[in-house]
Amino acid sequence: MSSFQWMGDDPLPNAIAQQPDILGNPDHTLLDAYSRAVVGAVQRVSPAVLHIQVRQRGGEGSGSGFVFTPDGFILTNSHVVHNAAEIHVSTSAGERFPAELVGDDPDTDLAVIRSSVTAPSVPLGSSRRLVVGQLVVAIGNPLGFQHTVTAGVVSALGRTMRSRSGRLIDGVIQTDAALNPGNSGGPLVDSQGQVIGVNTATIMGAQGICFAIGADTAEFVASRLIRDGRIRRSYIGVMGQEVALHRRLVRYYDLPLETGLLLLNIVAGSPAQRGGLRERDVIIRFAGHAIGSVDDLHRLLGDEYSGVSCEVQVVRGTELLKFSITPLPRTSD
């Protein structure tokens, strides 16, 4: 299985370059349409992109981020600022400002920090109307080279990616716009300069396979982090793995999927144990939703069901049983 490389890294010496107003120059007509689209997107978004430097117990690291509200909230990746003892942000002009962590969510690899930085903001757009093949531009600080621009296309939509916390991130954008360590947290924008994703990871050893968290996911997570400082999720206290169900059971009970979640361990005193679940049970439905894997269950364990009694259907041996379980709140580490 390919492994992802998260793109926060120790910086090399900064290389800061100012962007001339090319589109305001009469000679811009000499540019082809592709170049004008890229230049226009960069000039709209680049001033909001920041170089993030962090000090942690194990040393120093860096990444990217961008101001997305007029009052100084900055969006970046969780793995860039998680457990940081000190955070600073720098503009393309070399101005450096302290920043504080507002909240981070390792489950989606997103974080919000805040600073009094003197930089314009660029609002989040939407990733819902993206189409495969359309032009995208990535802006960030790979290896400490500030405000580096790369361009490519949307290679695929609806990808899933495993976060560092182990949960699955849905709605991930795949692009061939080149990303390198230090690009983490920078914006992925379309030809209109709309932020449609947050650059996150590459596959080690691969060429042109890079990923960004969709803007719609980022907008939801960022709003919750600003409001609460964390994302509220729930848990029922089980560990398990996907397992194939016997065809006879699938046909006899008219089960929705041919796989289920086999429970290998149940935490003592957890909602699952109190609700009557046992090891070797196979969960096939939760709150009316089909469950075929641990990721299916994770997707449902948000704040919607926290404290709410939910019906859980399991296969125990050859029996189909129903239980009532009330998930409890869980906070991200």
Short description:
This protein is α+β, with helices and mostly antiparallel strands.
End-to-end distance, in Å?
26 Å
Put simply, the count of helices is: 6
CATH topology tier name of the largest domain: Thrombin, subunit H
Low-confidence sequence ranges: 10-19
H and E order: EHEEEHEEEEEEEEEHEEHEHEEHEEE
Give the rounded overall mean pLDDT. 88
Name of the top-level CATH class of the largest domain: Mainly Beta
Mind summarizing the main beta sheet?
6 strands, antiparallel, barrel
Number of strands: 21
Tertiary shape: elongated
**Major sheet: arrangement of strands:** 8-9-10-13-12-11
**Rg value:** 22 Å
CATH-derived architecture of the largest domain: Beta Barrel
Give the fraction of residues assigned to helices.
10-25%
Global structural class: alpha+beta
| Total of domains | 2
Q: How large is the share of residues in beta strands?
A: 35-45%
How is the topology of this model organized?
Elements (H helix, E strand, L loop, with lengths): L3 E3 L26 H13 L3 E8 L2 E9 L5 E4 L1 H4 L4 E5 L5 E10 L4 E6 L19 E6 L7 E15 L5 E8 L11 E4 L4 E9 L6 E5 H14 L4 E3 L2 E7 L2 H7 L5 E8 L4 H5 L6 E5 L2 E2 L3 H7 L9 E7 L2 E7 L2 E3 L3
Antiparallel strand pairs: 1-12, 2-3, 2-5, 3-4, 4-7, 5-6, 6-7, 8-9, 8-11, 9-10, 10-13, 11-12, 12-13, 14-21, 15-16, 16-17, 17-18, 17-19, 19-20
